[in-house]
Amino acid sequence: MTDHTHADQDEALELDSSTQGAKANHWIGIDGCRGGWIIAWLQSDHPAQIHYTETLQPFLRKAPKQAIILIDMILYKAGDKSPRPFDRYAKSELGKWHSRVFPAPPQEALIAQDYLEACQRSQSISGKKISKQCYNLFPKMREANDPAIPSEQMLEYHPEIAFKQLNGNSIVEPSKKTELGRSLRHKLIKHHLGHYPNAPIKPKAEKTPCPWQPDDLLDALALALVAQNGEYKDFYQALATSHAPSLKHIQVNENFSRA
Length: 259
What we know:
Elements: H1 6-18, E1 26-33, E2 36-43, E3 46-53, H2 57-62, E4 68-72, H3 85-94, H4 115-126, H5 132-136, H6 138-144, E5 155-156, H7 159-166, H8 179-193, H9 214-229, H10 231-243
Parallel strand pairs: 1-4, 4-5
Antiparallel strand pairs: 1-2, 2-3
């Protein structure tokens, strides 16, 4: 695929949002990647598409208000304690593959200026330090939890839970970091969509590595698909009734990581 500029990416997103039918339904999955965010967009009157954007807010401002948006990123809620009910329940759903879910760090740790301070803040609150992998996601966590983003616009979801649901409630055992794991997930996406969408427009930079990995595309598509079929509601309803009564206020019928 030919490289394009960031302006081309913005134009593509603008075109999509400006040509949508007023009564169209929209289901969106978002996954963080090395260089930004991958957005899988399913519409009732338009072929499935995958986009790349460096920052989240410009896209969210253009996204249709009726869109159901699931994101593979920690979203903090008032009253969250560590470990969060979301993390505990997601781990229980994945059984012996529970390590594909890592617990969210205390939100207070996000203001840390470096890894050492982040570990100190986390340990003082939760009794545990954080991993370097988790710390490297702090910029993404801050971006997704920006107060400028309406709290009801997105709902946190885990791609491995989505793939389990797409796979007849059976865990996809091989890791998505392996060729077999990616192949199985690719087949699931293609089975449910009937095709596999083209990769996003790649930023124009000859010596810059591609800002996403193949599994980032898979994860975003899986989220969009369970947003479309409504299976994300099953997870949140079970979470609310079985593990977190305080989360019953979440509007799972309206709108709304890390293996």
